[in-house]
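hey m, so remember when u said the tokens were messed up on ur end? i reran from scratch. heres the input so u can diff it against urs
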Amino acid sequence: MSDTPRTDAASFDIRVAGNPCGATVVYQSFSRQLERELNRANATIAELEQDLCSGTPWQPIEKSPSNEGNFLVTNGSFYHRAELNDDGEWVSYHTNEYLPFTPTHWMEIPELNP
């Protein structure tokens, strides 16, 4: 299965004078529509990240919380729901396994439905 099914469905082949190979293209309006959708999605993600962080300051990882709870940890690129294990190490909230990255900051988040 293609990872670009909409583009594949909208594409068509053309032949250009002097080029025996031709090319597979899409209409400019289709490309612009995809770019507008991508821009809206990226703006929505940025707003959600801003909403998530507003009013709740990120704490440096060195200042680990003294209580149990739900936490969001980040390294600036990735975010993960986490908790502290009995040894004071950050682990995944869902699997209780070590995180796939080294967090640099954390913040407490309200209890979420699992």
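this time it looks ok to me. The radius of gyration is 23 Å. if urs says something different then somethings off w ur setup not the seq
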